[in-house]
Amino acid sequence: MNLPRGRHAPPLEVRLPLQRRRLLEAAAAVFARSGYAEATAEAIARQAGMSKATFYEHFANKEACILVLFDEAATETLRVMAEATVAAGDDPRARLRASIDAFLDMLAEHPAEAQTLLVEIIGAGAAGVERRDRVMAAFAAAIDAENEAAARSGALTRFASPDDSFAVVGAVTELASRQLRQGRPADVRELRPVVERVLLGMTLAPQD
After folding, report:
1. Is 155 part of any domain?
2. Helix (H, G, I), strand (E, B), or coil: what is residue 114?
């Protein structure tokens, strides 16, 4: 959507958030198409239909841009997963399946943002790795909390160690990353049975 200019232009407090949103959407498309290393501020601005100067009004550089994009994608994904889990009720398996579905639906509906979340952020150096580690820890904490509640009710077995939730996140992240990079399977939502087996396999196995 092109914003009107001149006396018909929206006020600054309206225009700036709209510009920022368009630039982030454009950045996701450019990062997904070209990769973080090859992406440029000029390419992002061109994708958004804006000038490079406008890009720099919002972001210091492409690293700052991808960090904001990553933060927003991660926050929204965690929010949607949490809402789906709550809406599924009290049954632990239903909650687990709802969370998986919400995660895979987000990746399917927002593939460019998903690629930033799971693949391209690594290219953003130490700051990108720190962001990724923090978000992976948040996903693991959410999984661990669900497992702890299910174990208290007797519905599932408690994880054998604090590392189990990170193992789940690592497996699911790699499955989804491969799908984004290689298109296998054709639709990321086809991974649901695999992800479910990973999660249930960690919670149904007998403990020593």
Report:
1. yes
2. helix
pTM of the model: 0.87
Is 16 a domain residue? no
- Residue linked to tokens 């061109």: 46
Rounding to the nearest 10 degrees, give the CA dihedral for residues 103, 31, 175, 70. Answer: -40
Q: How many domains does the chain have?
A: 1
- Residue 188 domain boundaries: 63-204
If you compute the radius of gyration of the chain from its CA atoms, what whole number of angstroms results? 20
Q: DSSP E strands: which ranges in the chain?
A: none
Tell me what percent of the residues of the chain surpass a pLDDT of 70: 91
Q: Estimate the share of the chain in helix, then strand, then coil, as percent rounded to the nearest 5.
A: 80, 0, 20
Q: Contact at 8 Å (CB) between 65 and 127? A: no
